[in-house]
Amino acid sequence: MNQHQIDIGVDTVYIEQQSDPESDRYVFAYTITVSNTGHEAAKLINRHWVITDSNGKVQEVRGEGVVGEQPYLRPGEQFQYTSGTVLETPVGVMEGEYEMVKDDGEAFYAPISQFTLSIPRTLH
Questions:
Q1: Which of these, 115, 119, 124, lies nearest to 25 by C-alpha position?
Q2: Which residues are bridge partners to 102 per DSSP?
């Protein structure tokens, strides 16, 4: 249950021109939309991703903010950004969380539900 009402939407795309399947290199971009649907402002401080390819190889990514920013979201506002990842397989999954801080200093985590990265025509 997300009492802080930070909604996270994800769109993914396979970047064919940067990928090289013969070298086990599959490049994906993902566009994240972070929406504050609650009643209190919050700042995105840190990110944590767990990226798993179809071989079971896990990459864990932690860092400050997203794309060099720590967006501050007032109620009703949203922030959108695009980033990317490289897998060794044509299909993988990502999930994670954003650490958020309210104006009163209370920290909370906004979960990012698991989503699939896959090259077109791989999944039906």
A1: 119
A2: 42
Helices (H), the chain: none
Residue linked to tokens 């397989």 = 89
Distance of CA 70 to the CA centre of its chain: 14
CA distance 99 to 107: 7
**How does pLDDT run across 1-32, given as a tens digit for each residue?**
346 799 999 999 999 999 999 999 999 999 99
Residue 10 C-alpha from the chain's centroid:
7
Decide: helix, strand or coil at residue 16.
helix
pLDDT tens digit sequence for 42-68: 999 999 999 999 999 999 999 999 999
Q: How far apart are CA 115 and CA 49, in angstroms?
A: 11
Query: Structural domains in the chain?
Result: 6-118 (2.60.40.1470)
Give the CA count within 13 Å in the CB-facing half-sphere of 121: 1
Tell me how far apart the alpha carbons of residues 43 and 65 are, in angstroms, rounded to a whole number: 9
